[in-house]
Each structure stands twice: as C-alpha cells, then as structure tokens.
Specification:
homodimer, mainly alpha, Farnesyl Diphosphate Synthase, two-stranded antiparallel sheet, 14 helices
Chain lengths: 301, 301
C-alpha cells in the first residue's frame, strides 16, 4: 500500500467517523423528552466515540457501488445503534459483567441495570424504525430488504445466538469450526449486514455484486474477531479501552487459545487476503473496502 | 349484548386464539437449531398460552375491513412476539423481579438471567424480521408501515419509555394525566399498533378509517390498563396467574390508588363506550372489535 493510499484511507475513515457521529447525534437528540433518563442513557451508550467500523463499512460499500452517500446515512446509523445496544446488554452483570467500556463506565454502571436493559431494547427498535421511516427516501423494497438483513443479523439468525453460544461456552472447549460458527453469528453477521446495507443503499447492486460483497463481509467479519482475540492478549487495558485479558480470565475459547498467537496472526492475514480477493472485480471505488480489510487486522484497539 | 352475540365473540376469540397459537408455534419451531437453549427459551416465553388480546385485535381489525385473514397471521404473530419479549424483560430481577407469570416460572427462573435477556432481544428482532420477510406477500409499502408502527410502539416512542417512566415512578405520586401518559406508552402503544397492523394487512384501509381505528385503539389501550389495575386489587393470584397485589406492594401509582375502585370502574366503562363510538361508522364486520372492547373491561384475568 503506497503512502498516498494509506493517507487516503485514514482520511476516508476520519471523514465518515465524523459524519456518523453527527448522524447519530442528530437522531438520538431528535427523540422526544418523554422518558428523559432513558433517552440520556441511549445517548450515553451511543455517543462515546469508538472506531465506528460498521457504519464506515456501510459508507465504503455504498461508495464501492458509486452510491449516493446521503442514502447511506440511515443504514450507517442503524447498524451502529444495533452494535451499541449489543454492547450495553453484553456488559450487564448477568452477561459479561463489565464495568468499563471505551475507558468509561458501562451504561448499567453510569445509570442502573433496568435503564441499561431498556436502553438496549429501545436502541434495537430505533434502528429498525429508522430504516422504515417515510423520510428515508429510497425504494420501499430496498428498505424492506435492509430491515430483513439487519433484523436477521441482530437477532436469532445472528448476533444474539452467537452471544448465547459464547455465554454457554465459557469454560468449555470448542473446536475451531465451532468457534468460527459462534463468531460468524456473534460478530460476523452484523459486519456482513453493514456491507449489504451499504450496497443496498446504492439501489444499483447486482446479485453478483451482492454475492461478492457477502464473501468480503464474511472474511472481514471473522478477521475482525481473530484480531480482537489477538488484542485481548497483546494489548494493554489503556490502549484497548476495556479490560485486557478479560476473555482469558473468563476462560473463554479464543483463536489464540486454539491456534496460538502466530497461528491466529496467520489466520487474520489470510482472511484479509481472501476478503480483498472477493472484490477483485470492483473498480477503484472499492479501495476503501480494501483498505478497511487491511485496517481491521492492523488496528491496535 | 344478546346471548347469540356473546356466544359469537367467545367463538371469535377462541378461533383466533387457537389460530395464533399455531402461527406462533410454526414460526418459533422454524428457527434453526444453532442456539438450542436460546431457541427453547424463546419458545417457552411465547407458548404458555395467555389471552392473546393483541393478535386477536389484529385479526378483528383485519376483519373490520373485510381483509384476508391469511395476511393478518404475520402481523398477529409479530405483535405477540413483541408482547412476550416485553414480559420476559419486565420480569427480570433488575426490573419487576417477578418469579411467576401465567402461573409458571418466568423465563429467567426457568432458564437463567442471561438467556432471558437474550431471548427477549431475539424475540424483538424476530417480530420485525417477520414483517419484512419476502414470504409475507403484501405490498412493500404496507409492510414498511407495519415495521414503522410496530418498532415505534415497541421502542422509545412507546412501550420501552412507558416501562422506564413506570420503573422510575415507584414510590412517587403521579397525576392522573401523568399516569395516563405512562400507560398510553407502556400498554396503549402496542395495543394501538395491533389494531393498525390488522387494518394495514387488509390493504384497503382509508385514512379516515385508520384515524377512527386509532381512536378506538387508544381508548381500549387505556381501558385495558385501568382494568389491570382493578384486577390487581380485586382478583386473587390463582385467577390472575401472577402475584395479586404486586403493584400495591411495590407502591406503584395505579388508577385505583388515584381514582378509587369505583372511580376506576367508571373510567373503564367510559373508555369502552368511547372506543365503540369511535368505530360507529363501521358495519357489522367490526362487531368483533366492539365485543373486544366489552371483553377488555369484563375480563377477570
């Protein structure tokens, strides 16, 4: 990757990280004041910054198909709301019982447990409501497909099942295939949905292109998780913004525990290459997607 | 109400209670086996019977517009999945901390707290996914409107805010207006959405008819809550299927505590009459809706 390309992905990410902050802020501050504490908790859960990988992927996939970026704002916001809701519920005492997230108190610590449960619930509804909002002016069929993909990725067909399998696997040994299945549900499905929603927002994706983007999404989804497992053992708490070694401490099966550190790093490299290969037929508009694949395995938090 | 009409509403309710059991069973058993414990918990949370007031309202509203009952199955299922998810989360230790629901252990007691949180999360996603499923063959615009109404009723614009206000009101005094606002969000929004989704499933509702049905829905939504408050003090635990006097014990503001028992009963009667008045222009196809309004304030559990 030349220096100019490396600079341009940094600037792409910064540009769309800034944009999604504004879009999230706008929608979360447009909620009526009916339940002030709940609204504040929803804002707290979503407006703490972060890498915003999923919305950036929505924009990058829209760009790969030369789509109108304005039409990517709602799906970008929706995937991040789902991601933030999942973090709030994952951190609950009955789940991972985490007090720290991105270096700040988790939502149930900053507010209370009931409010955290409800804020997560409301964020999920909000994400799917935004996609069906009459003000989101793209074809009804495309918006319905987005609802269907996102509700699938968020629910039983994706994230929630992955979380349930993960939770019940603590202290058990999983095979690499079982670990892969769990992560493809827990993390992969939403990352994949981000790519698909971005592509759908362009209203010009062919079935062939959607298939290629799906393969891309599956590879980077897994790569993302492998890198997370690597960072859990190689990074420190300050850089990570969450408790380092948390998975190890919980005796959770990880790619590092199954493949060793070098094996896990090789796997991440290979998945990144496969992701880039999957979109080989796309033109330079897909360079942001290519760069994100590289970023995912190079990030340190 | 003549005896024959009284019999016919009983038979309408029984017919569609049976039908919704089958529809719920079919969809909940069609889930893949990826996360067996989670799937079992979702089934447990939804297949314990119950009055099924919301899905019966979907069918009755569809019938009021002479709609095809087959097109009402998916929205009927969706509103009940949302209702069941809300019960699972409301019963959690951090919320109402209830061990008993419809005379059986609540989901977090029968399984565990993490599984109950996740089952609720997955049921919400499932409801909205069903409405956007390509196999649900009505116009895309109508399905999108259903997603929008249901996500609104379930989320911050409805149920979740109501629950948050209710939770934070424990031990406080609310005015009748504040209590009404809270219940219109907590219970009313989903009941209203049930009526609207049923009407939309007919694909033949005029704006005027939707407005009338909305007024009907608002009145029976409130009437339902007033009757719940009455039953909390007049019924016994066995008939109620949940702990009698639970609201009183929690020092929650209720219509009975604010208006007295007779005042609350008068309010329920008046709301029932207003609901029936709102749909005065509908023909005999709306008799089921009229009968449901009467049933809501006559039920004993």
């Amino acid at each position: 990757m030349s220096e100019s390309k490396s600079l341009s992905i940094d600037s792409f990410m910064q540009q769309f990280q800034l944009r999604i902050e504004q879009v999230l802020h706008q929608h979360l501050h447009a909620l009526p004041a009916d339940a002030e504490k709940l609204r504040t908790a929803m804002q707290y859960a979503c407006l703490q910054g972060g890498k915003r990988v999923r919305p950036v992927l929505v924009y990058a996939a829209a760009k790969a198909l030369a789509g109108n970026m304005d039409n990517a704002d709602v799906p970008a916001c929706a995937v991040e709301l789902i991601h933030c809701y999942s973090l709030v519920h994952d951190d609950l005492p009955a789940m991972d019982d985490d007090d720290l997230r991105r270096g700040k108190p988790t939502t149930h610590i900053a507010f209370d447990e009931a409010t955290a449960i409800l804020a997560g619930d409301a964020l999920q509804a909000m994400a799917l409501r935004l996609l069906s909002d009459p003000n989101f002016k793209i074809a009804a069929e495309a918006r319905l497909q987005m609802v269907h993909h996102l509700a699938g990725a968020a629910g039983y067909e994706g994230m929630v099942s992955g979380q349930s399998i993960d939770f019940n696997a603590v202290g058990n040994t999983l095979s690499v295939a079982q670990l892969e299945k769990m992560h493809s549900l827990k993390t992969g499905a939403l990352i994949n949905a981000s790519v698909l929603l971005g592509a759908l927002s362009s209203e010009r994706a062919s079935t062939q292109q959607l298939d290629a983007l799906q393969r891309y999404g599956e590879c980077i989804g897994l790569a993302f998780q492998v890198q997370d497992d690597i960072l859990d053992v190689t990074s420190d708490t300050a850089t990570l913004g969450k408790t380092q070694g948390a998975d190890q401490a919980l005796n959770k099966p990880t790619y590092v525990s199954l493949l060793g550190l070098v094996g896990a790093q090789n796997k991440a490299d290979s998945l990144c290459a496969q992701a880039i290969e999957a979109i080989a037929d796309f033109d330079e508009n897909a360079d942001a997607l290519r760069a994100i694949a590289r970023f995912i395995i190079a990030r340190n938090n």
